[in-house]
Amino acid sequence: MSGENFIGLGHNPNPNVPDIPEGFGAALSREPEARSCFENLSASQKTTVIQYIQSDNITGGDARNKINHAVASLKNNTFDL
């Protein structure tokens, strides 16, 4: 992943983009098309994806479902979140 995309808390030197959640980073590492699309998003778009994944989760399953949806959208280059 490019230098702007750090996984885990407190590792992203770009203050305009939140850290990539570990589960999302792992999913992106398994899906090169999704990773490439994510890397080419603007800082604002990356923030939108990360906030979508992190918002309003009651269970781990909720977060996994959001990660799967985000990766599928990125893989298909639809960015439908």
Outline the structure in words.
The protein has a domain at 22-75. The protein contains four helices and no strands. It starts with 21 loop residues before the first helix and ends in a 6-residue tail after the last helix. The longest helix is centred in the C-terminal third of the chain and has 16 residues, at 60-75. The protein has 81 residues and is mainly α.
Features:
single chain, 81 residues, mainly alpha, 4 helices, 56% helix, globular, disordered N terminus
Sum this structure up briefly.
The chain has 81 residues and is an all-alpha fold. The protein is built from 4 helices and no strands.
Radius of gyration computed on alpha carbons: 11 Å
- The stretches of 5 or more residues where confidence is low (pLDDT under 50) are 1-9
How many helix segments?
A: 4
Derived from helix and strand composition plus strand pairing, the structural class reads: mainly alpha
The outline comes out as globular
Helix content range: 55-70%
Q: How much is the average pLDDT?
A: 83
Spell out the blueprint of helices and strands.
Blueprint: H1 22-30, H2 32-39, H3 43-54, H4 60-75
Helix pairs in contact: 1-4, 2-4, 3-4
